[in-house]
Amino acid sequence: MRTGAKESTTLFHSGRIFDGHSLHADATAVVVRGNRVAAVTSDDKARRLAGPGAETVDLAGRLVLPGFTDAHIHAVFGGVERLGCDLSSQTGAAATLERIAEYAAISDQPWITGGGWSMSDFPGGTPGKEALDAVVADRPAYLLNRDHHGAWVNSRALELAGIDAGTPDPVDGRIERDYRGNPTGTLHEGAMQLVAGLLPPTSRQQLRDGLLAAQEYLHSHGVTGWQEAIVGDYAGHGDVAAVYGELSADGRLTAHAAGALWVPRDLTAATVSDLVASFRDRRRSNAAAGFPTTTAKIMVDGVPENRTAAMLEPYECACAGPDHGGRGLTYLAQDVLETVACALDEAGFNLHFHVIGDRAVRNGLDAVGSILRKNGVIRGRHHMAHLQVIHPADIPRFAELGVTANAQALWACNDEQMVGLTRPLLGFERAEQQYPFASLAAAGTRFAMGSDWPVSTADPWQAIHVAVNRRPPGKPTDDPLIPAEALDLSFALAAYTSGSAWINGIDDGGHLRQGAPADLVVVDRDPFAMDPEDLHLVRTDLTIVGGQVVFERSTVPT
Q1: 9-67+513-552: CATH topology
Q2: Which architecture does CATH list for 75-196?
Q3: Nearest 5°: CA angle at 65, between 449 and 409?
Q4: How confident is the model over 412-464, as pLDDT tens digits?
Q5: 304 with 360: CB under 8 angstroms?
Q6: Rounded to the nearest 10 degrees, what angle do helices 75-83 and 204-220 cross at?
Q7: Could you tell me which of 8, 436, 503, 553 has the C-alpha nearest to residue 256?
Q8: Torsion, CA 20, CA 229, CA 225, CA 144, rounded to 10
Q9: pLDDT tens digits along 88-134
């Protein structure tokens, strides 16, 4: 398919159509004129409407659907990591260390940075500094794990940061230690900043290159828009808004990207008004540059694997080291969380909560409830990401408060990290309350979906596979994680298209209907006609944004 002029017409025929909500009962064709969908109809009607000069694409039974919108992603960070020491494709400690050694051998940078290592590849999820010293001895190394809630550092980095047995844990994190109290090489949550503050700043050119690399990668998976889940200073990364504005200005930003402004974890009640004022200014300047930032990101808790997810009851494992009373941590006091939630909603911001533990979910819901009590009305499109453990009593509150469930569905399975690290810490009862997607849907909860890339793959079909099967992709004989909480294929696709577009404020996005934006994807088969256990095999053949081709596989028939 050619890229064509803005008012060119393209006819997609002889296929199956998912319209953003359901599989179309009788339509087999889509007509695109310029940057809009002109019709979704039968082949015969579409041919008459398109006219004799239209370009044609024979779908040959394949599915065409709206472009995916990723409602929770770190695109720039992922792109920068992809161009650096990228460990996301490595499996096992040996392969991870081999990749680090290869990168260090060719890098002339003063620090070895990157990330993507898997906690499940190391005992207890905490690799040691000695192994990293063996492959990087001449320079400090700082490597984020896949979930970006922990960093692996070598002895040189610890030395430069002055971290030793006498260094106290920060209030929002933990230094992994041996039985003598000496740091072992893994830094959790806020402890990452003890080293991250020493890193050379990422250059503007590196950020631009990272965003372009990310965009190319995401388009290859049918992603036409996303929400950058942290816009601000976090874990050694700076504010990425400027590079979005620059690429928007010169026409190289082809995706519908939006951002969530980062609420710092040292916020107090006294500083809320200043934060909101600065967010208003940033929203105004970012919008003028072509990068909407109408959302605020609040990280309520951490992750269960390092015992920082906030739980209503203590973790099962009595592990060495401080674990915040056994129930994990929350980054903001509840009064501060409610104060900032009310102020941001009143200022017209949507709230994007990171909540993983059941106590964090409850605190977040209470914060949204406080908006209704104090402001009298809830203005924003508030959503909660991750939602690993939810107390059953809190499930109906999502629909009652109008809070969207922003699901990272790929994690809802018994993978190695779940079996080896998470379940032993949660215990049986809580392990059976994880990712209750079907229960939330049955209660009337609105859904969106995202990947959290580079924490996990950005390919929507991998997450959709797990949402439908509750098993890891390619593992049809594995025990499913609470199979009753599975979603059907139409619901999962709707969440990843129209649901996520709505979260980003694109009300007519994520749909295939007359007048909708011509953001669409052609995949290599009809997923509704295949064994659900094979959904992870679906691949993108063609991605179009605003009527323009942004990705095309050479095998696409015309």
Answers
A1: Urease, subunit C; domain 1 (2.30.40)
A2: Roll (3.10)
A3: 20
A4: 999 988 998 899 999 999 999 999 999 999 999 999 999 999 888 999 999 99
A5: no
A6: 100
A7: 503
A8: -110
A9: 778 889 999 999 999 989 988 898 888 888 888 888 888 999 999 99
The SS3 of residue 251 is: coil
* Residue ranges covered by each domain of the chain: 9-67+513-552, 75-196
- Find out whether 389 and 334 touch, Cβ atoms under 8 Å: no
75-196 shares the fold of 9-67+513-552: no
Alpha-carbon dihedral angle through residues 260, 263, 264, 268, given to the nearest 10 degrees = 180
Alpha-carbon gap, residue 437 to 489, rounded angstroms: 13
CB atoms within 10 A of CB 25: 6
Q: H-helix or E-strand containing 450?
A: none
Size (the chain), residues: 558
Strands 141-145 and 150-153, by their bridges, are: antiparallel
Residue 407, classed as helix, strand or coil, is strand
Token digits of residue 283? 């929203």
* Cβ pair 425, 326 in contact under 8 A: no
Report strand pairing: 16-17 vs 63-66.
Answer: parallel
